[in-house]
Amino acid sequence: MSDKIRFAVVGCGHIGKRHAEMISRNSECELVALIDVKDKSALGIESYNVPFFASLDEFLNSGIEADIINIASPNGFHFEQAHKVVASGKHVVVEKPMTLNKQDAEQLIFQALHKHKQVFAVMQNRYSPPSAWIKEMVESGKLGKIYMVQLNCYWNRDDRYYKPESWHGKKDLDGGTLFTQFSHFIDIMYWLFGDITNIQGKFADFNHKNLTDFEDSGFISFDFVNGGMGSLNYSTSVWNQNLESSMTIIAENGAVKIGGQYMDKVEVCNVKDYEMPELAPTNPGNDYGAYKGSAANHHYIIENVVDVLKGRNTITTNALEGLKVVDIIERIYALKKNDHYEL
């Protein structure tokens, strides 16, 4: 591998441009191409002086060398494009969700193993200081047995986000509220507490009937395989602006609440024989103008890719964890068939 890791980016929307920017800023990386179906002039990518392609196939046939390709296209394209990248003998970074069903995720992992290629799943919330801190609290046993975990995700996503010409809100390309908006938080929960079972759910579509093909709100309860019980309450029906993303943990040796709009603040830490240290500040949320997103941690993902490909570190979010997030969401959504709420 050459000194610089060569990247191409598929999808030049908000997130794809963040990938391109973080690649460009990293001295060990080189951005070799951008790929998008939209016309270059409509994308706002003039600052990147690299070849531009209208399709992934066009790029793969161009002869331009790349070590890794980042997929930041609509969710429904992730599997097909990532599979094509790995089949061509390149590593791949896949934005969340890795795929829209478990079967595709398994097929992608199988292909990557067969080709000896890395699949990096993007779950950037793991890098925020409160996430790293709570991971250590859980793993070290300071909290003792986990009794209850409550995850609340209350965001605003209205017609400023679900535009008619956008892929957001379309069943085949978006997949659903949990896939597009809240998979980061399900990832954090899985990362901390492991898999879930005995899932029950209730869903509603309050104010998105004319905007999306799926529910906007849900109450989900479950047990953790490793012990304890949990709930996920979510909605994109909040008026005008995001309300919160929070995680409350009730455990044997104390209670912790991580809150703020993006789970970026430790709001409560009452733990036996423990004094809360001062954490580094969390990066601000991605600002998309009318609406806000999760903390801007994409530079950590690019750094991790470089470290892994240069043999300096292990992968932060491996493909198996990406698969488990898809699997958990798929099992939650399977309950819709049995609920009074119908799509």
TrEMBL record:
One function term, GO molecular function aspect: nucleotide binding
Residue ranges annotated for the Gfo/Idh/MocA-like oxidoreductase N-terminal domain, each copy included: 5-120
Domain called GFO/IDH/MocA-like oxidoreductase: residue spans: 134-256
Pfam families linked: GFO_IDH_MocA, GFO_IDH_MocA_C3
Top-level taxon: Bacteria
Coiled coil: none
PANTHER family: D-GLUCOSIDE 3-DEHYDROGENASE, UDP-N-ACETYL-2-AMINO-2-DEOXY-D-GLUCURONATE OXIDASE
Protein name per the record: Oxidoreductase
Species in which this protein is naturally found: Chryseobacterium angstadtii
